Amino acid sequence: MKVGIVGAGMVGSSAAFAMVMRGGASRIVLVDLDEKRARAEAEDIGHAVPFGAAVRVDAGGYDDLRGCGVVVLACGVGQKPGETRLQLLGRNAAVFRSVVGEVMRVCPEAILLVASNPVDIMGQITQRLSGLPAGRVIGSGTILDTARFRWLLGRHLGIAPRSVHGYVLGEHGDSEVLAWSAARAGNVSVGSFAAQMGAPITDEVRARIDTGVRRAAYTIIEGKGATWYGIGAGLARIVAAIAADEGAVLTVSVASEVLGVRDVACSLPRVVGAEGVVAELVPELDDSETEALRASAEMLKRTVEAVGM
Ligand SMILES: NC(=O)C1=CN([C@@H]2O[C@H](COP(=O)(O)OP(=O)(O)OC[C@H]3O[C@@H](n4cnc5c(N)ncnc54)[C@H](O)[C@@H]3O)[C@@H](O)[C@H]2O)C=CC1
Ligand SMILES: CC(=O)C(=O)O
């Protein structure tokens, strides 16, 4: 599958690198306002191809995106230290107003995979600008937060993060919801497994993991200016699920009805395959998680309505 990436900055180029290392794409085309940057990234990433999958990596313009099965949108600006994702909305919405039309002109059949922040709202704006059905405009949503949750739980429990089944739902941002009540180690509740291992999930452990997930971007941005490896791997995971028509369950963001909030984009566990998102799972949550998810969806709905697109 040919994959386009608009925005060859840290996120876009990390996604391309991750696709080269894990497979899933047969061609990758990097497009950026800064053409010199796109060419340099394509060349640098191309040098990893002998160690990875058989992929051709090029830089190009919008016309070179013709035939793409997926186009990743990672263009625009990122957070400065202390800034929230929502504060990027005006600047990135302006970028997307020009970019989405260009992408649709050359590849109206592509699935659009949005990474730019605030990703839930940028995904919904992209859906409205493109006129595509909801399931074909996928925001990376909480795929990264879910990875952070699984990683931290895996470290606490002493097991591989891949054996931790836990999800982060709602906004990719400050109002996100860690679904503790449904989290499993293998097929055992994490609370029960943690007790068996002599590493109980105390209030202190729970608060530390919650902060570790919810504040990860702020901490990393404070330390190195931006985050890119985790999301690059997450985007490559979504692309692989589409390319292989996997039917993988991933927490991604598409516009749907969430707990009675209509036409809102936020993350739930959803089934991803060749046609994009084809189904969603209704999570089993306790009362406080349900209320937090509804509040997150309502906040996103108010914000997207205020944009007026
Ligand atoms: N969804 C997620 O989990 C995550 C999302 N992000 C978001 O991804 C976005 C990109 O972040 P970085 O790659 O770190 O930023 P960056 O500044 O390294 O790269 C952005 C690129 O977009 C390009 N660009 C800007 N306007 C453009 C236009 N009109 N057309 C084409 N290219 C254009 C710039 O030239 C630049 O190369 C940010 O909004 C950031 O907040 C970052 C990390 C995680
Ligand atoms: C920047 C961002 O959205 C993240 O690392 O979660």
Automatic annotation (TrEMBL):
**What catalytic activity is recorded?**
(S)-lactate + NAD(+) = pyruvate + NADH + H(+)
E.C. code = 1.1.1.27
Q: Provide the activity regulation entry from the record.
A: Allosterically activated by fructose 1,6-bisphosphate (FBP).
- Identify the metabolic or biological route this protein is part of: Fermentation; pyruvate fermentation to lactate; (S)-lactate from pyruvate: step 1/1
**What protein name does the entry list?**
L-lactate dehydrogenase
Pfam families listed in its UniProt record: Ldh_1_C, Ldh_1_N
User: An example Gene Ontology cellular component term from the record?
Assistant: cytoplasm
The record's listing under HAMAP family reads: Lactate_dehydrog
Enzyme class, spelled out: oxidoreductase
Q: What is the lineage of its organism?
A: Bacteria, Pseudomonadati, Pseudomonadota, Alphaproteobacteria, Rhodobacterales
